[in-house]
Write a structure and sequence with these properties.
Shape of chain B: globular
Strand content of chain A: over 45%
Structural class of chain B: mainly beta
Oligomer: heterodimer
Radius of gyration of chain A: 13 Å
Mean pLDDT of chain A: 92
Shape of chain A: globular
Number of strands of chain B: 12
Distance between the termini of chain A: 35 Å
Largest sheet of chain B: 6 strands, mixed
Largest sheet of chain A: 7 strands, mixed
Low-confidence stretches of chain B: none
Helix content of chain A: under 10%
């Protein structure tokens, strides 16, 4: 079955530590996205990538970094510069040019120890 | 600027009762509108979408939504709620940004269903 896989389901970060969230898709989608979800705030776009080796900042990119070396993979690194990283992180993908038709993974809950 | 407002943070209904979740949007052109549902700890599932044409759109799980341009609204309805409908519901508008389409989400409405 085609879909988006996020791992791990739960992740804990120590102060000053970088952590990387994995997102893999086998839908053959060109575009991939990372959203952050906080209670009562809906989803906010962190980064998105329309093609391999290219990505753009979303609305809240500070403290995060991404790479897109393969079409199937779009990992998100939460750096130590992100002072409030506790949130639910959702990865999504779409056909290029159809960013309104998103397919979502099941998310990663990141918490700070 | 484009935005989506969901005025109700929490709604509680009895099983079998009707449901309406409100959504208002701000967008200069004809919008693409969406409703997503999220179960706890899970990703989002698309319920329905409006692109053009008939302003009453049908979705999965017995949901429907009506686009009203004059009111800038896209309210979600269901005639009879089931306990399994308890979840969080997000309204979203598709917007052009930097040459690409992206989704702008509302803050969500959490639905509780009483037996």
């Amino acid at each position: 079955d085609g879909g988006i896989t996020q791992s791990p389901k739960y992740l804990f970060r120590k102060e000053g530590q970088n952590v990387t969230l994995s997102c893999e898709q086998n839908l053959n989608h060109d575009a991939m996205y990372w959203y952050r979800q906080d209670p009562g705030q809906g989803l906010r776009l962190i980064y998105y990538s329309q093609i391999v080796n290219d990505f753009q900042k979303g609305d809240i990119a500070e403290g995060y970094s991404v790479s897109r070396e393969k079409k199937e993979s779009f990992p998100l690194t939460v750096t130590s510069a992100q002072k409030n990283p506790t949130a639910f992180y959702l990865c999504a993908s779409s056909i290029q040019g159809q960013g309104e038709k998103l397919f979502f993974g099941s998310g990663t809950q990141l918490s700070v120890l | 600027a484009q935005s989506v407002t969901q005025p109700d943070i929490h709604i509680t209904v009895s099983e079998g009762a009707s449901l309406e979740l409100r959504c208002n949007y701000s967008y200069g052109a004809t919008p693409y509108l969406f409703w997503y549902v999220q179960s706890p700890g899970q990703g989002l599932q698309l319920l329905l979408k409006y692109f053009s044409g008939d302003t009453l759109v049908q979705g999965i799980k017995g949901f429907e939504a009506e686009f009203k341009r004059s009111q800038s609204s896209f309210n979600l309805r269901k005639p009879s709620v089931h306990w399994s409908d308890a979840a969080e519901y997000f309204c979203a508008v598709g917007a052009l940004s930097g040459g690409y389409n992206k989704l702008i989400f509302g803050a969500g409405t959490r639905l509780a269903v009483h037996p």
